[in-house]
Amino acid sequence: MLLHELIVVYMPNVTKSMDHLDALEAQSVYILREAFRHFDRLCMLWSMGKDSTVLLWLARKAFFGHVPLPLVHIDTGFEIPEALAYRDQVAIDMNLTLIVGRNDPALAARTTYVHSREDHPAEGDPARMTRKQCCALLRTEALRSTIDGSGPRWRLDRANGKLVPAEDRAPWHGVIVGARADEEGSRSKERYFSPRDRNNQWDVGDQPPEFWNQFKTDYAPGTHVRIHPLLDWTELDIWLYLKRENVPLVPLYFDQGKGERFRSLGCWPCQEPIASRAKDIDEVIAELSSGSLRNIAERSGRLQDHEGRGGLEDLRRDGYM
Length: 321
Hints:
The protein is built from ten helices and ten strands. It is an alpha/beta fold. The protein has an eight-stranded mixed beta sheet. Strands 9-10 form a two-stranded antiparallel sheet.
């Protein structure tokens, strides 16, 4: 039985007006508090996208306006400038502990999708990287080394808005992520509390059962656990909640006058907008509710997902977000 169902059974008069968003919010807040109770070393991934920003908002509600854990952004070096500006401003305004991880050696060696094409312009050159190979280095490897503390960590100094070396280098054992089951096929295989092994790898076929809000939270040393408070939310739920809560959002999600907008945000070399004239939240909600996007995958503009047979699931098995 879900938390909100228990409340309905034992406190029916209090919950007569509980709507769908209230129920989702209550369940997510419960998951966040369970994670905080069971993991001494806990962080939350924040991509500045709509889902992880809703997750940030829920964390503020779960902990009474304070976020008592660090937010971690994995910076590939190819982030959209507007998203980075938004990141720093929100972190300053909300008094957040923001940690930034990067794969600095790969960037310095120009081992990226963009640089390989600049250095090896000929089509068919084996030195040219694929987008998935680049993601494996700049996101998956950067995430692994940031979580276990073997790679560089940078902390935003809110006083001057600059990144400085972070003193805390201890591993995080619990990682809160804004993944939704409806967003992409591999994410529908996740649990609320989903373990990864010592190498950050995900065994899709070995996930613990979760019945009646009973979660496995004790694991062998070396395991880190991904926690997914938004697993049951849909894309439309996210937008309805953003509207209800008046959550600030990166404007790239809206049409800026070109008849297009981004539906899912990533690195600038690896994403494409969709055709859309939705200029604000109300128009995005109307667009989603109309069914006009029902045959277009939410991540269809994330070009790395379309490379190779395994798509995003291959990346996620190796530790991708």
